[in-house]
Amino acid sequence: LHMSAPSLVDRLRGQQCPLSRHFLTALALCHTVTAEWKEVSPVYQATSPDEEALVGAARELGWVFLCRTRDFIEVS
Predict the structure, then answer these.
(1) pLDDT band, residue 41 (cuts 50/70/90)
(2) Which GO terms describe its biological process (predicted)?
(3) Within a domain: residue 1?
(4) Residue 56 to residues 15, 16, 49, 71: CA-CA distances in angstroms?
(5) Whole-prediction pTM
(6) Considering the domain boundaries, does residue 25 fall inside one?
(7) Were both Cys, which of 3, 9, 25, 64 would link to 76 (CB 3.0–4.6 Å)?
């Protein structure tokens, strides 16, 4: 999956779309996907292709799931 929508990302990161920002944050945080690092970007592994697609879509829109530990989840 690769999308390029800089104007949409700008709008989502701004104050115009708070519900959309919350939705994308939830996509980036609420899953069982793991991230394996290959070169400079994460490659996602998931038991469900749907979960992998949702986390990947959030990444393409600027909410990048980086890693998960027992105590925290890192999103950029």
Answers:
(1) confident
(2) Golgi organization; phospholipid translocation
(3) no
(4) 23, 23, 10, 23
(5) 0.77
(6) yes
(7) 64
